[in-house]
Design a protein that fits this description.
It is built from 14 helices and 13 strands. By secondary structure, it is of the alpha/beta class. The protein has 2 domains: about 120 residues, Aspartate Aminotransferase, domain 1 (Alpha-Beta Complex), CATH 3.90.1150.10; about 240 residues, Type I PLP-dependent aspartate aminotransferase-like (Major domain) (Aspartate Aminotransferase, domain 2). The strands form 2 sheets. The protein has an 8-stranded mixed β-sheet, with helices on both faces.
């Protein structure tokens, strides 16, 4: 392997939120950043920019937009017009801006459940109602139950919020599934905000990410697609993201809502983003091999433990684990007592689940599996 994903980097005494939220007895496997060193193409570009020594207000680096456009065409076969691209300091900002820009106070949003917590918070922060669109388990995948969703609709809905690949769960939606979501949007005249931040982290062989906006001209004109190199290349702390908005009117409303509230993107973040999209692909391909191996190891271990179950994620480095069979009131708290810091399922919509981040070294994963095994034994003793 050309890149060393087994390298142990001590983040405990750094500025890492992931590693400093819990005390040192707890192994942190919660928030979605990895423990891997970012590729040298990014660190080299950052060093060169820092050595320049001047950090005044910055424009987009030369070639940044083209690097992103080329990435989209190369990876997904999606042709993005450079005029469609709006840079943001984070995907969460894009979710919140979309709710505020495209819904009135008496209109509602639609979001799948379980779902990444900012989907819910963005509606609450804006004082908008939100309909929970249930996801149903089909085999190893979480898919939208559109028939059940239709029964909840009132006619006040305006914004359909999608997450592809799904977080949590890791489902990468197929074309026919996306087309069914588009049909609903057309039927109800909905704008669609599609969070596709994990689009580069497809682990399942033969599966390819399909951007919602690439389905058709109609899908493009009613959509806001949110993407970022942050999860892909472990640069979430730098905060460079994009909103791809093909329709000029939607793009103007989005930009007007953003003005004076959401700042421009940091010059170092833009430098890192361009380097990632321009030269990070070899590193990414090696990372996917490593993550796939971690995923399979964790899946096999969890499926062998009584009281736990797990969907096999097609994408992301996040496992959605059903702990309802353990018979404990609060699985997140229980696992923390056993030295494991997982994301609470309650934040996503189901308190009997936990989300486990396996974007770590194989050695760290083995430590986690050993603690998980002891935790299940302790739960069985309690029962």
């Amino acid at each position: 392997m050309a890149f060393n994903f087994d390298e142990e980097i001590n983040r405990r005494h750094s500025d890492s939120s992931k590693w400093n939220t819990h005390d040192e007895s707890v192994l942190p496997m919660w928030v979605a950043d990895t423990d891997f060193r970012s590729p040298a193409c990014i660190t080299d570009a950052l060093i060169a920019r820092v050595e320049h020594g001047v950090f005044g207000y910055g424009a987009h680096p030369k070639g940044l937009v083209q690097a992103f456009v080329d990435w989209c065409e190369r990876r997904y076969g999606w042709r993005v017009d450079p005029q469609w691209v709006v840079f943001l300091p984070g995907i969460v900002a894009g979710l919140n801006l979309s709710v505020r820009a495209f819904t009135a106070p008496d209109e509602t949003t639609i979001a799948p459940t379980p779902i990444y917590p900012p989907f819910r918070k963005s509606a609450a922060f804006a004082g908008r109602g939100q309909i929970n669109a249930p996801l149903q388990t089909r085999g190893q995948r979480l898919t939208l139950d559109i028939d059940s969703l239709r029964a909840q609709l009132t006619g006040r809905e305006k914004l359909l919020m999608l997450c592809n690949p799904q977080n949590p769960g890791g489902t990468a939606y197929r074309r026919e599934e996306l087309e069914a979501q588009l049909a609903l949007a057309q039927e109800r005249d909905l704008i669609v905000c599609s969070d596709e931040i994990h689009c580069d982290l497809i682990l399942e062989p033969g599966v390819r990410h399909i951007p919602f906006a690439s389905l058709s001209e109609d899908a493009a004109r009613r959509s806001i697609t949110l993407m970022s190199p942050s999860k892909t290349f472990n640069i979430a702390g730098l905060g460079a993201s994009v909103a791809v908005i093909p329709d000029a009117r939607l793009r103007q409303r989005f930009s007007e809502t953003r003005a004076g509230i959401v700042p421009n993107v940091d010059v170092l973040a833009l430098t890192a983003a361009e380097a990632a999209w321009r030269a990070g692909e070899p590193w990414l391909e090696e990372q996917l091999i490593y993550l796939r191996r971690n995923r399979d190891r964790l899946y096999d271990a969890i499926r062998a433990l009584p009281g736990l179950d797990m969907l096999l994620p097609e994408a992301t480095y996040l496992a959605w684990v059903d702990a309802s069979g353990l018979g404990v009131d609060n699985p997140t708290r229980f696992f923390k007592e056993q030295g494991l810091g997982f994301s609470p399922g309650a934040d996503f919509g189901d308190p009997q689940y936990v989300r486990i981040n396996f974007g770590c070294t194989a050695a760290t994963l083995e430590t986690a599996i050993a603690r998980l095994t002891r935790a299940v034994e302790a739960a069985n003793v309690r029962a």
